[in-house]
């Protein structure tokens, strides 16, 4: 089967470079495109990155999108809608047979904790700067 036009190594390098530029520049409005690229890359080369690392990266990008909406002062309905979109209550969809129970548990716990914090903040808004600084540290 022939490679479709525009799907060769040059196109992949270009897409990877554009993705890296978005992440380095912290252009949060384009993070959904980065997530699409990461999903496509994972589907094309499933063994390239371990499941846990891929999910941690994606979770961090999704969380940043939600936090950015909060920091921009968007209505809570919009924030909670984005939260539901990026972190559905059904949990992460696992398509990797090499994902361990520990990986799944850690990812699920992190997602639940993040969602709980956002929902708590929506219910009782407080000084966002101090709350975000004291509660949400970068993902380790």
UniProtKB/TrEMBL annotation:
<dbReference type="InterPro" id="IPR029400">
    <property type="entry name" value="TINF2_N"/>
</dbReference>
<dbReference type="GO" id="GO:1904356">
    <property type="term" value="P:regulation of telomere maintenance via telomere lengthening"/>
</dbReference>
<feature type="domain" description="TERF1-interacting nuclear factor 2 N-terminal">
    <location>
        <begin position="20"/>
        <end position="134"/>
    </location>
</feature>
<dbReference type="GO" id="GO:0070187">
    <property type="term" value="C:shelterin complex"/>
</dbReference>
<protein>
    <submittedName>
        <fullName>TERF1 interacting nuclear factor 2</fullName>
    </submittedName>
</protein>
<dbReference type="GO" id="GO:0016233">
    <property type="term" value="P:telomere capping"/>
</dbReference>
<dbReference type="Pfam" id="PF14973">
    <property type="entry name" value="TINF2_N"/>
</dbReference>
<dbReference type="GO" id="GO:0042162">
    <property type="term" value="F:telomeric DNA binding"/>
</dbReference>
<dbReference type="InterPro" id="IPR039098">
    <property type="entry name" value="TINF2"/>
</dbReference>
